[in-house]
Amino acid sequence: AFDLFKNYYAAYSCLQQKIDFIQNYQSWNMVAIWEVMKAIDVDKNKFSKERSFTNPITEYDKFSSDYYETHQLDSIEFRLFSDAAQFYGKYFLFHSYLRDTYTQLYAKGAFYWLTQTKQIDTVLDVICDNPMNPGAQIEDLTYLLNKDNYSVSITILLEIIDNLIDDGYVKLREDAGRNNRFYIATFKGRFFKTNGGYKAKIIQDDASKIKIEVEAARVERVDNLSVANSKRLNDLTLYLAIGTGFLAAIEAIKLFVELGKLDYLLSLTALYLLSTGLILGIIICLLIIELSKRVR
After folding, report:
1. pLDDT (tens digit, 9 = 90+) per residue, 97-126?
2. Taking burial as the number of CB atoms within 10 A of a residue's CB, which of 27, 150, 270, 284 is the most buried?
3. Three-point CA angle 281, 283, 287, nearest 5°
4. In the chain, count of helices (H) and strands (E)?
5. How far is CA 256 from CA 5, 246, 251, 262, 278, in A?
6. pLDDT tens string 13-46
7. Helices (H), 167-263
């Protein structure tokens, strides 16, 4: 049962840890692996010290001492995404995987310490600074990298060079007579390298992205402020129309009183006209408000 727990439930949790690592660091480089291993070690030390009179042996102690090899594992933990499965998957299986991967990369050489961005910049630097004419062959580049203590496989090196060719920073020259392939930096590549290479490009892209996001936020704030001001202006127009109507009604009543002893019909006509004007004014204001909403 414990083997099933380790090889299935906890292994699935370990797989999730690997996916998260790739999403955060993009590659299994030694610097990132070392940082994650140190963070896990800190947590492991904390868990191993969480003992008390009522809990003399912690869960970490149980797993590290194969306690569950001879004791029953709680059924509620015997499932995917359980606390025990995630705990064992991260602090034992994933930590062991990181340690093995780190050892393998260390054996391959310092080149694998580098991030992918630094790797491709390093290869571009070697090609641009290559003193050989008409260009460098793959063996020459391997030799030049080894001189800088960057031991790298030809397969990885070719993948990086293919990317540089696709981006237009390196070109391939083939000597049909000698059946040789030479890699030469283009003017675009030398200019790109002088201006900081891929690292600088990533920084510029991030800065441009931030600038676009800031500008979009500013435009959104301006639009929201414009909408709010337009609404306040429409409300004010409506209030002015209503106030004007009240004033017109008061004037109509005063006129009615003053003309009552002269011509009652005339006063009624004046009141009707003023009331009609008030109603039309309110209707026009409401139409203006509705049209402004539709335009927005």
Report:
1. 999 888 877 766 667 667 788 888 888 888
2. 150
3. 115
4. 12, 2
5. 96, 15, 8, 10, 17
6. 999 999 999 888 877 777 788 889 999 888 877 7
7. 187-194, 197-259
